[in-house]
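Cont'd.
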Amino acid sequence: MSLLNVTDLHASVITDDGAQPILKGLTLNVRPGEVHAIMGPNGSGKSTLANVLAGRPGYTVDSGTATLTERGLLELEPFERAQLGLFLAFQYPVEIPGVSNMEFLKASIDSLARARGDEQPNTATYMKQVRELAASLDLDPAFLKRGVNEGFSGGEKKRNEIMQLLLLQPKLALLDETDSGLDIDALKVVAEGVNRYRSANNGVVLITHYQRLLDYIVPDFVHVLSNGKIIESGDKSLALELEAKGYAWLT
Amino acid sequence: MSSSSVDDLVEAGSEYHAGFVTDVESETLPPGLDESVVRYISAQKNEPEWLTQWRLKAFAQWQEMREPNWAHVHYPPINFQDISYYSAPKSQTDGPRSLDEVDPELLRTYEKLGIPLHEQAALAGVVPDPAAIGTPAGANVAVDVVFDSVSIATTFKETLAEAGVIFCPISEAVHSHPELVQKYLGTVIPQRDNYYAALNSAVFSDGSFVYIPKGVRCPMELSTYFRINERNTGQFERTLIIADEGSHVSYLEGCTAPMRDENQLHAAVVELVALGDAQIKYSTVQNWYPGDENGKGGIYNFVTKRGLCAGPRAKISWTQVETGSAITWKYPSVVLRGDDSVGEFYSVALTNNRQQADTGTKMIHMGKNTKSTIVSKGISAGGSANCYRGLVRISPTAHNARNFTQCDSLLIGDQCAAHTFPYIENKNNSATIEHEASTSKVSDDQLFACQQRGIETEQAVSMIVNGFCKEVFRELPMEFAVEAGKLLEVSLEGAVG
């Protein structure tokens, strides 16, 4: 069974000079329980892949398909993709001034519950859960009253993303360079959070520049993305090889 | 915010809920304005001669004045002879009586609008229906309701009287407390202050009068609910609030009107007087009919509001949420005459479709150590134009005056406009004046961040906009803050598509 299936995906980013093709026939299959790392040089299309799958405005899909649990993703609105179980941990989490984290998270879990046809969790239970999760990620529970990412450090923003991952329990987590800008202690906290999330029923796609994250989140597969295509796949040892040799020998 | 209420609102928001017409027989003056109309209105209210003369003086001054044209709003010339200046439901021509005697058709109107006229119901806390959005419904609020040109009922009068508080229609106060009315009327906003204030002074019909005696903290929120019903009439209400030394009062004001294709004029005057150590908090949720999405119809809301901090340590605070009206022209101001007095202005002005708003405040510092704070949040959506205009004036006598101004504009879509016109006149070099301004858009990144967590677009927009307004909403009385949030959601319907 396939959790995420991407087949021959071609996509462009919309710029002032027109559409620039970025993904040029990308194929990827993630089964439940698997962690896939996607590595590659700058400009190879790593973040584009994450954004196109999540439906961020500013991109067009030229051809190809993408499904999550066998449901077509590409024709859905961004919130419908999220309601289907797709989660994107942002590379640059945005600030939403005046909207408290508590309010934001409640709106999110209520929307997801409603989409699943579940009852909305009771507020007291939810608050307790959020506080515990925050504490486990070294986030001061006082942050819940502050605006979403308002005045957060880079590390706090990333830990907040992981907190949301653990709270919302999506089917598939796309982590877009979650390790960038983190010191080693923050990196360990983030990795530990992702490992807690991992289960036989869900999948993780880790987009990263550096192999050091993979010391803490051990992937089942490593793919090298170059010029919009996966040019090499392997197991964890591929990441170590890349670390030693760089990308040049592959391209 | 529970999601079910969001769903209700998405459904409820598809139209202007207060847009119905009450079918009552009215005594309406034919359109036109001359001295006889002024005398007629005065006679209808059995006014004493001094007030008739006061009106006539204002009328003479108005005739010599010109309509202001400096505001950043555009509309065809108003023909003041096409407007009817007085309309009252026939059943109410004898003036307000007890609630039991009010025409049941009128009572039903307020029931539909969710205004608690029954003291029992109000005490128990009424849950407002969607039509009540933007109205001061809630527990423990005394209400004066003004229907076209007359006040039809005032609740909790006895309870308030026990505390010595006077809360009644101004037409009644002219008879029951003539000394107070004569002493203060027009002292904050003189008859010839501006074109619309002069017009109002000549033809004002009804409005509320409040007097809080020395040292009294008003035991409940006071509120007035204004309703325009009759076609082709203008509403010219006049409100006068006097807080005697050391007293406190919080006052709320709400307003709605039927949906009509023609524009209707609303030119009100509100005067506040806070004596030494007194505090007045005045909150408005303005939800006049804004016109349709093509800009047809709607209320012209040309209003003069000003408060005087007459004694030391007095405080006047204006909080307004302006979402209605085709055109808003309104600058609630504070004259800080007493030493150590404080003026505040917190405003959210939202325009959508073809609405135009030119609104802001004036803080006139005269006393020593006077302090003012201005927080203005303008939100423009659709093809609307939203303008902040503010004046901070520090007089030579105002030693150590301080002002802080923050003006933020939020744009939704790319067809709308936001302008900021801050004026600062400083004649005293010991003053401290701070001004911060920002303009931002509801960014695609913010919207996407919400959507990526499963939050639907409309809810995401209203969450972001509510967050933007938070500093103002927290100044509103509790029930009002909730209503204001809902009103924003409804007013933003279809702003993002």
